[in-house]
Amino acid sequence: MASNQTSLSDAKFSVPVSDVEQQAALGTETEDFDYSRRAQWLRAAVLGANDGLVSTASLMMGVGAVKQDIKVMILTGFAGLVAGACSMAIGEFVSVHSQLDIELAQMKREKQRKETEGKEEGEKESVTNPLQAAAASALAFSVGALVPLLAASFIREYKVRLGVVVAAVTLALMIFGWLGAVLGKAPVVRSSLRVLVGGWLAMAVTFGLTKLIGSSGL
Fold this sequence. Notes:
By secondary structure, the protein is an all-alpha fold. It is built from six helices and no strands.
């Protein structure tokens, strides 16, 4: 009788402890993988979108300072989108490919030192992908650049068009600044204000200098 009670008691304690340990271990592995990997890609995407937003909007505002034609403004923005996306993709591809070469060289040295198939497979899964990085950068830049383009596409009135572009870019800058702060674990208000003021300054400087040069007759 005593032996039966002891076995039942052992059974009651062994199952929950084992489940808890397994869930804790699984949760730890999931957190380590998801957060470290996704945060880097999401933050890079936010920065790329912010770059596309500010550079394209600044180009459109600069041209809009001397040309009121909507077609000229849209074509300028579209050219900025294509050129910027291609530049981002090529730059990211070259940069990440250099990193990949370093990683492969390190893996080769590790392979010579340790001939372990399990470790070798793990390293192959963790190497960077230049094509994926290039596509992500181009896509993120294009998403940001589409904001001022879409905002200006359907407004003929010159002053209203400029105002709508500034308003749309301001809203997008606040969103991108908030996302970047959350993903980077930075102060939200301060980081958002930095992004917003930086975008405003870029548009204002481009608009002012282009207006000055255009009015001088150059």
